[in-house]
Structure formats: structure tokens, C-alpha cells
Amino acid sequence: MAKTRVEIVQETLLGWLASAPPPARLLPPDAPLSPDTTLTARAALDIFEDQVTSRLLDVAARELRKTNQSFYTISSAGHEQNAVVGALLRPDDPCFLHYRSGGLVMARSRVAGAGDRILDGVRSFCASADDPISGGRHKVWGSKPLWIPPQTSTIASHLPKAYGLAYALRRARRLGIANGLSADSIVLCSFGDASANHATALTGINAARYAVRRGGDAPIVFLCEDNGIGISVETPANWIHDNFSRQPHLAYFEAGGTMDEIWNGTAAALGHCRRTRSPVFLHLHTTRLWAHAGTDVETSYRSLEEVEAAEARDPLLANAKRLVGLGAAAPAALLEIIRSVQARVDAACVAVTRAPKLTSAAEIVRPLAPFDAAAIRATAQVQATPAARTGHFGATLPEKVTTPLKRTLCTHINSALADEMLRFPEISLFGEDVGRKGGVYGVTQGLQKKFGPHRCFDTLLDETTILGLAQGAGVAGLLPIPEIQYLAYIHNALDQLRGEACSLQYFSNGQFANPMVVRVQGLAYQKGFGGHFHNDNSIGALRDIPGLLLAVPSRGDDAAMLLRGLVATARACGRVGVFLEPIALYHERDLHADGDNAWLFDYPTPDRLLLSGEPGIYHENAKDLLIVTYGNGVRLSLRAARRLQEQGVAARVLDVRWLNPLPLDAIRRHAAECRRVLVADECRATGGGIADAVVAALAEGGYGKPLASVRALDTYIPLAAAANLVLLSEQQIVDAAQAGA
Predict the structure, then answer these.
(1) Can you give the pLDDT at residue 402?
(2) C-beta of residue 419 within 8 angstroms of C-beta of residue 448
(3) Which of 121, 377, 509, 527 is positioned for an S-S bond with 57, CB 3.0–4.6 A?
(4) Number of H helices and number of E strands within the chain?
């Protein structure tokens, strides 16, 4: 049988070591390899062992895959020089890592003396329930003791949050939130040359440069592990150098050649970042041995000559020759390192393949959406001092205000944000136009003046950056409240919530969290202002995200209490929440008639909050019809209910408030008390809102009474009065109720 490329690479290294003559003299262990480096012989041998460990774990993953005992074969083979970076970083330098950074992890584990790097590596690619980072949920590089939050990205979607952590370090330190980090800690973020072209990667790098240009800190090293190919697509020669070496506010360092040359370049890059607190681009030249993954047929896009040329650049072979040639080690010593590591890998494979896997759905989803009602309510009892509140609001506190203009949904959100910022100093509020302008609708007006530009500030115009900054701040121990200016804009950056923020607790088995409350201005019905970008009525993409909390208020007092519930849940349980604010209701005062002021409500005192699963109920004694709705639909349904009452139909209205997860138990309970159910959904008919889920839950639960729904049309929303032709209307609710009578 023909030898595999894995076998050929392994045999080439072993064969050279077996035949190489010993050096004439050995360097003392603490002597530098050469006069031009601080890398000692002892440190070089340690790094070589780190690299061998990474390589043999890669080989084991592919071997075990043949018997379906391993489930991940994307290897770090050829990238092992990143172990030099791991050896030079400090354990208190957080790392967000590329999937080929195995050598770096092995070196970092050795330096920190944390965990069994071989056993943990095998546990990870075998999906063992004993895997100390993900608990068998995914193959990721990660470790709580090593300060490596797990990353699932293959397209550099972790760069924005790595920048976010770098940006947040200084504020966290000022608040006394150390999390094991030092005043001069830096952040390391690695990725591949192909991923460097992705918009999300460019976003993270741009955000770091922008922060420094504006006078802030961004102590982050962007480590590009350049092997010249992305799966099957070659990166043009010198593309990375030409693209990143002349960027303003981004120091560029190159690391290639021998182990000691890479040591020198890396040490200079890390030192510059640590000293200047500004971003660095470290271009590490690597090669890719073997195919992209075990299932990839490399010969379909690479010639044999190209494969052999890559193998000739094997860093382990080059380092072995360098160490022997300089007298750092005898060939026999390097062979003994390989033999010893191989024995440990073999033993770990035997042990792990016998270890338990995840065996129940409950076990799998346990860290996805932690919810501790008692801890949340305890968090909500933390109150600002009366003096602090008086200092902010003045003598008349918001709960004592009777002026109509100060009792709207917009004003209550503003007051609630202020109250949360007064009692939790780790809260920061940021986004496009939220600072000096006070938001495009005035929701954050006055907050920057009261709390200062470090707690309420404007970001650059990019939603991916905003959500990346929020994630990094959350990981640092802060509690960010970012704003996305319009619901339609969040789709530009949805993966930062779906693939990154909401997955962190899941893939770290609850060890890492990035708590946040994302304020999103959205939904439709704005008068005199239109277009689909400012009147977006589709929430399906948010409701699809596992673990995400999604709350939608319809009135001012609810808005304040829902916001507090989200903040308390984020703080107590590490959760990610979205607070979707209906723009058309910001300044609404009336319910049934102009001037009735029936949609103005008193501000609830700061100790009151609403938690997930708590809906709002109107006309609780009505039993003819249950109208299930939310947001703008609540006002429409209440107006429809009055008209139906005049026709002898008593309609109960249920405001779900929480769109993810839906309060299905409450819906079922109220539905059972009514003769029929109508879902009034202001979002798009096909998957845009909640009607599908509510109707399905009732039907599948055996609800044998009439069920119906009314929804907006499946279309983008046009300008001006034409919008009324496609949106849910009060008349549609009345007509649907009459049709089912």
C-alpha cells in the first residue's frame, strides 16, 4: 500500500534524525543559540517539544478518525512555528485563536503549567465529555486557566471581539475588574492568510486602528499565520505584506526563517504592542502540510511537486537541523523527545476512547441559556443611593413625574438606562450617534453629559464593530449596552450574535461569558418616515438564535422593567439579550383618541423588573377571544378589542413581551380559558414573527378550539402611506375576530 503524505513527512523527520551525526560540541542550556538572539538552547528545546506535541496530536486525530473515534482533522501541521509566539506570550495575555494554532496552545500550556495538554487535546478532537473547555460540544482551542476563550470561527469572525477586549482592558482595570489580567496585558488574535480577506477580519483590524487614531488604546497583536493557501485557493505572492505593511496606526512585523529569527521578530512585535498599547500586525510565515482536512483531496488542486515543496518546508525538520547544527541538542535527544511524546499521546488515546461522551439532550444544552431567577432578582435589588439618583434626575425623580412629555416610552427608556448606569458602574452605552447627539430619536439624550464619554460614547459606523466591542467588553467583565440604530442594520452583523456572542457559554461549558444587552430600534408604523431600512418588520433571524433573549416593550413602564430584567439577567447569568424598541411608540401618548393620553404610564421604581416568561395581560376576565400580540400590535389589538366589545365580543389581549423564548406556558394557560385564539403579528407572514410558533405550539399541544392569525405581508415596507397597505392594521384584527365568531 502506498504511503500517505502524513507517513512520508513523519518518516522524513525521523530518518534525518536517525542518520544525522551528533554536533561537535553542545551549547550550555542557558546559552543563546546565536549571538543575534535571546533564544537559549533550553528554551529552543522546550519549543521543539511543544511543536512535536502539536504534530503528534494532529497525527493521532487522523488515525483515530479512521475508526470513527476522532471527529476533527483540520491540523496545525506546518504551522508549528506559532509555538514560538506561545512561548513569548504571558499567561495573562488573552488569546483568540485560529484553528491551526496548536503549537501556540502547547507552548502556552507548558509556560503556564496548566492542565495536561496532551490528554486535553485528545479529549477535544474525540468529543469527550471530559474535555475541559467544551465538554464534548465542539473541537476548539480554549482554556479558562490559560485565558483562551474558545473560538468556532473559520473566517476570522473572532477579530472584532478580540479588538473589543483589547479596547476594554483599560476601563476594566480602572473599575478594579482584573480577571487575572495585568495593567500591561495584551491580546493575541490569530487567523489565516485567506481569512485576512474576510470583511469581518478587516473590520476588527480597522476598528483597532480607528481606536488609536481617536486617542484610545488597542493593545492587540493580529497574528496572521500565512501558509499561502485557503483550502484550495492560493493567496497571491506578497499579498499579506503588501496589504498590511503600510497601514496607518498598525505596526507591521514579519517573522520567518529560522526558529531564532522568528523568536526575534515575535519578541519585537509583542514588546511594541505592550509598550505602545497600539495594534500590531505580526506576519508569521508558515506552510500547510497535508490537505486542509482529512476529507480534503489535496491532489485535486495541488500537483505532487507543490505538495513535496510544502513538505520540504516542514518546520519540525528545519528546527531539528538548526538545533543539531548549532549544538543545542544531539539527534538522539530530539528522537527521545519524539518517542516520549508519542508514548504519552498513545496512552491518552487509549484512555480517551474509553471515556464517556455526551449522552443526553439536557446535558448538551445545559450551558446554552443559564437562567437563575433568584440570582437575577437579587441582582436587581442592587440600588443606586438616593443621593446618586437625585444628583442625576434632580429633586423630582422619574417615578414622581406627571408631565405627559416625561411619561412616554422614550423617556422611560432614557430614565431606566440612567438608573442602570447609576447602580452598575461596569455598564457602558455605545453605538452610532448615541453620545453627543443622544440618539437619532433622543433615547440616550443627556446620558453622555451626565456619565461622561467613557461610559456613553459614539462608535464608528459599523455594526460588526459595535457588537465585537460589546463581546470583548463582556469577556473583560464589563456590562455593555450597545445600540444598533435600526433593526435592518443588525443583519449586517448578525453572525456576531448568532455565531459568536450567543455560542460562547455553550462552547466553553459555561466557563466564559460575554453578557450584554443590545438595544435595537425597529419595527414599523413610523409616521411621515419610511422605507424598509427604517421600518423593518422581520425578527425571524433573531428568534432563530439559540440562547438569545429577545424582549419587545409596547409601553413605557414595561420598557423600563423589561430593560432591567435583561440587564439583571445578563449580569447574573452572563446572558446575551436584545431589547427591541418599537420606534413608532417612542413618543406615542394616545390609545383610542387624540389627546386621551391613555398610552402614558408612570415610571416604575427601580426595584421593579420583568423576567423572561412574564407576559402582559389586558381584560383578563374576557373569555370570548384571546388576542396574542406584541409591540405595536398591542395598541392595535386594544383598539380592536374596544370595537369588538361594542359588538358583544369580549377579547382578552396577551402581550407576550418576550419573543425569545416565547412565554408558551402562559399562552397555553390563557388560551385554555378562552373560546378561540387570534395571533396578531405585526411582522412578515412567512417566518418573520411569532405567529407560526404560537399556532404550532397550541395545535401540537392539543388545543382543540379555533385558531387563526393575521400578519403583515411578505414584502419590504414602502414609503409613505403605501406602508399601511402591507402592514397589520386594526381593521384586519377586527375582521379576523368577526370571521371566527
Answers:
(1) 86
(2) no
(3) 121
(4) 26, 19
- Homologous superfamily (CATH) of 5-359 is Thiamin diphosphate (ThDP)-binding fold, Pyr/PP domains (3.40.50.970)
Instruction: Report how far residue 272's alpha carbon sits from residue 325's, in angstroms, rounded to the nearest whole number.
Output: 31
Chain centroid to Cα 76, Å, comes to: 24
CA 567 to chain centre: 17
Per-residue pLDDT tens for 374-432? 999 999 899 999 999 999 999 999 999 988 878 999 999 999 999 999 999 999 999 99
> What does the domain layout of the chain look like in residue ranges?
5-359, 373-585, 616-739
Same fold across 5-359 and 373-585: yes
One CATH from 3.40.50.970, 3.90.226.10, 3.90.980.10, 3.40.50.1820 for 373-585: 3.40.50.970
Cβ neighbours of residue 315 closer than 8 Å, sequence gap 6 or more: 51, 78, 79, 80, 81, 286, 287
Q: Is the pLDDT of residue 530 over 80?
A: no
Burial 538-561 (b: 16+ CB within 10 A, else e): bbeebbebebbbbbbbbbbbbbbb
Task: Dump the DSSP string for 582-615.
Answer: EGGGTT---SSSTT--TT--PPPPTT----TT--
Q: What is the percentage of the chain residues whose pLDDT exceeds 90?
A: 93
User: Each residue of 23-48: b (16+ CB within 10 Å) or e?
Assistant: beeebeeeebbeeebebbbebbbbbb
CATH numeric code, 616-739: 3.40.50.920
pLDDT digits (tens, 9 = 90+) for 436-468: 999 999 999 999 999 999 999 999 999 999 999
Query: Hey, how many other C-beta atoms are within 10 angstroms of the C-beta on 381?
Result: 11
Return d(Cα 287, Cα 102) in angstroms, integer.
14
